């Protein structure tokens, strides 16, 4: 099994055309999706817990990318009033780990991995339902493709911003090749920098 869960194949393939990095992040936030904040602590905990459950490395970039996707699909679920039952989540969760009961139980034994897997599963169900499918169509590529297109349209107004240390969220995915020094400065940071510069100038002795 790869370091990415099977069900993430559909979710990670979404090209979302979100709003880029317009909003900026708060101190301690790894990303902000709409009004949902994902903390650096959330990313670290998820990376460590999922690595333990999978028995292989699941790095912070992968964790952040999937947490952002989960948050986006959670917002789409709410906006579109899509119903996902506990039974559907459970079925999709087992599919996400390749129907490997031992791995599934490892995820269930820890609250961090259990909640994460449930979010991944819910995101997969939302995607396939937007494509006109049902829980039985999780492996139906046609339904998933229709769902991806529907998610792209439904999420076009959801703003995503990522802390510079992690890169930038571009065209529906995390670009870790972008240096923090090249990231777009947020409005809040620009305002603080300007205020500090103005204060320093006023403090200088007048000639």
From TrEMBL:
- Signal sequence span per UniProt? 1-22
Q: Does the keyword Nucleotide-binding apply?
A: no
Quick check: keyword Signal in the entry? yes
Highest taxon in the source lineage = Bacteria
What protein am I looking at?
A: SurA-like protein
Residues covered by region (Disordered) = 169-207
Query: Where do Low complexity bias regions lie?
Result: 197-207
Comp. bias regions, Polar residues: 176-187
The UniProt keywords, alphabetically, are: Signal
Q: Where are the transmembrane segments?
A: none
